Each structure stands twice: as structure tokens, then as C-alpha cells.
Automatic annotation (TrEMBL):
Keywords assigned: Signal
PROSITE patterns: PROKAR_LIPOPROTEIN
Top-level lineage group: Bacteria
Name this protein carries in UniProt: Lipoprotein
Extent of the signal sequence: 1-20
Source organism per UniProt: Igneacidithiobacillus copahuensis
Length: 177
């Protein structure tokens, strides 16, 4: 029993000693607390302003989503058709350009998906990003074999992603592509 009392005594002394180390409030404590409160208020205000800016940015992106999607589809179609009709010497560079552009569009729609998180446009943005990621891979494959490329143009996964975005846009005032 005595062995237990000694460690308990040391523990209690150590805890009380730690309490004794806390300095007494100084004359500037009130001023410091007021400064910290002011800083916290400023941080909260900045957070509110950032949220408002993000909401404004999201609404603007929502307004332009379907028209941007349609324009992107039109461009990738036009460029792909141009690559098919290019001379054999130009086709490689042409398909590389289409693949690079589609990759950039995929990243753009991925960024929109993050901006739209928790909102109705998140899923179509994800589908659009997936479509352009698949388009990038397709264009890279077209570089070497135009016949295989033409057969792969109707990939069911690409078409499903495109149909999902088109269906969303048809219900949100955007023309289907």
C-alpha cells in the first residue's frame, strides 16, 4: 500500500507544480484578448467574403456551363474531322494537338466539378471531364491508326458521358449537342 501512495504523491505534486507554472495575468491581458478577438472577427469576415466570391463564381460558371460544353464539343468534332482529312505527314501533329486540347478540357471540367461540389452541376461537370479524358486517349490512339480511330469514335463509354451532359443541358435550357 505504501508503494502506491508514493507514486500518487509524486503525481499530485507534479500536477500542482504544473499549475504553479501558469503566469498570472499581466496588465496587457485585456488588450491581447481584444486584439485576438478583433483578429478572429477579421478572419471570419474574410471567410464570409471568400464564400460569397466562390458562390458568385459558381453561379457564373453554371450560367455558361451548357454553352461552353456545346462549344467544346463542336470544336473537338471540327478538329477531329480536320485531322482525318489532313495529309499523312500532318496527321500525327494534328492528333497530338487534339489530344492536348482534350486533356486541358478534361482538367477544366474537373476544376468545375470541384467548384460545383454539392450542387446540381457537379455530376455533369464530372461526366464532361470524363468525356474529354476519354477523348484525349482516343485522339492519342488515332495518331497511329486512322481506321481503328474511326471505329473507336463510337465508344459506348464516351457516348454515355456525352449523353449524360446533353440530357442535363437539355433540362437546363441548353441545346443538346
Amino acid at each position: 500500500m505504501r508503494k502506491l501512495q508514493v507514486p500518487l504523491f509524486l503525481l499530485a505534486t507534479g500536477l500542482l507544480g504544473a499549475c504553479a507554472q501558469i503566469p498570472a495575468p499581466g496588465p496587457n491581458s485585456t488588450a491581447l484578448a481584444q486584439t485576438r478577438a478583433s483578429q478572429a472577427d477579421q478572419a471570419a469576415q474574410m471567410a464570409q467574403e471568400r464564400l460569397a466570391a466562390v458562390a458568385t463564381q459558381r453561379r457564373a460558371a453554371e450560367r455558361h456551363f451548357c454553352s461552353s460544353w456545346k462549344a467544346s464539343l463542336d470544336l473537338v468534332r471540327r478538329d477531329a474531322i480536320g485531322c482525318v482529312h489532313a495529309t499523312p505527314e500532318q496527321q500525327g501533329a494534328c492528333w497530338d494537338a487534339v489530344a492536348n486540347w482534350a486533356g486541358a478540357k478534361s482538367e477544366y471540367y474537373a476544376a468545375l466539378q470541384r467548384l460545383f461540389a454539392g450542387h446540381p452541376y457537379a455530376e455533369p461537370a464530372q461526366a464532361a471531364g470524363s468525356f474529354f479524358q476519354q477523348t484525349q486517349t482516343w485522339a492519342q490512339n488515332c495518331r497511329g491508326n486512322i481506321q481503328a480511330c474511326l471505329q473507336e469514335a463510337d465508344q459506348s463509354s464516351m457516348q454515355a458521358q456525352k449523353a449524360a451532359v446533353n440530357q442535363f443541358c437539355a433540362g437546363h435550357g441548353g441545346p443538346p449537342s
